[in-house]
Amino acid sequence: MTDLPDLAARSLGGSVIAANDEFFAEKENLIKVEPPTFRPHTFTPKGQEYDGWETRRRRGEPGQDWVVVRLGAPGLIRSVVVDTAFFVGNYPESCTVEATAVEGYPSPEELDDHPWVELVPLSPLQGNTANSFPVSTSQRFTHVRLTIHPDGGVARLRVHGEPLPDPRELADLPLDLVSLHNGGRTVTCSDSFFSPPNNMLQPGESRFMSDGWETARRRGEGNDWAVIRLAGAAVPKVVELSTLHYKGNAPYSITLRGSENPDDPDSWFPLLERAKVQPDTRHRFRLTGDRPMTHVRLDIHPDGGVARFRLWGRLTEDAATGLALSWFNLLPADQAVTVLTGDCGLTDQAAAELVAARPAARLPEELTMILG
């Protein structure tokens, strides 16, 4: 599951919003995108500097330490990695991981009033190890809480899963159909020697060369490519492609095709004919046509690096409805009731009855009205 996006990553907008203790090393290190590092003999007034989150030694009463992370991309969590890299004599004995789903942007104190769902039961940890735990709970979450028992250090927390956007934020708007935030994801590619293609689907500008997708130098015939699943069936209208930071290693040109059945080689049709691109440059190309598609294939000729790839358009009506239905069915019950009583104005009893009847085959009429 670690090939799925890290929903907690700082690059996707994740944030460490609270911890009960961070005496030796700051909680924000947990969601850094880059792998943890270690520099020996780098002592601060508090001790050896570690690239992670580290709490003080517990004395007296037994207990545990905890940290809360707001996911940059709320969604379905498939696995959690508690990486104790370089923590050898000071890693926690065990951990638990929980998640919750909350409307809006709650403060850490407000989260105390919401129910938490156990994702990882009390489980032993190994030091200097990427401890991986599968998650079987099928609900959409917005926050996770890592608890370590009794204390110690964790280098990185990875929350791998499938982003599931809130349809209320997308209603009646064009959107980036390949954005990781919106549920886009690379499903296959020809090469990812230097860096993976999902990098080019991240939000924001590329920070440096390895923050995009870069292939090895190709020798011989052919070219490199990536197939990307869209957020849903859609008709794209604009392509944006950036080669920022790629100066001596940008592609010479690109092509783009679309398909509703990517496993059928004959189903692919052209969206953008061969277009030359420049190094270290943002490019924008308008598309014509009105054929819906669920996947696109970006070909770079012959090889090289792409910093960011955007594909702007609108979901088809059926795709938008399907996305909204999936979202409603996968909301934790507490949040689903809040949505129905708050946005839709239903009584507590009516909302509870609709939520108890899930999974719904059709979107409730009250939700259809507010989603347009």
UniProtKB/TrEMBL annotation:
Domain of life: Bacteria
Enzyme class: hydrolase
SUPFAM superfamilies, alphabetized: Galactose-binding domain-like
NCBIfam families, sorted: allantoicase
Protein name: Probable allantoicase
E.C. code: 3.5.3.4
Residues covered by the Allantoicase domain: 13-163, 183-315
Gene Ontology molecular-function annotations: allantoicase activity
Keyword tags: Hydrolase, Purine metabolism
Coiled-coil intervals, chain numbering: none
Keyword Membrane: no
Catalytic activity entry: allantoate + H2O = (S)-ureidoglycolate + urea
Metabolic or biological pathway, per its Swiss-Prot or TrEMBL entry: Nitrogen metabolism; (S)-allantoin degradation; (S)-ureidoglycolate from allantoate (aminidohydrolase route): step 1/1
Record-stated family: Belongs to the allantoicase family.
Source taxonomy: Bacteria, Bacillati, Actinomycetota, Actinomycetes, Pseudonocardiales
Transmembrane segments: none
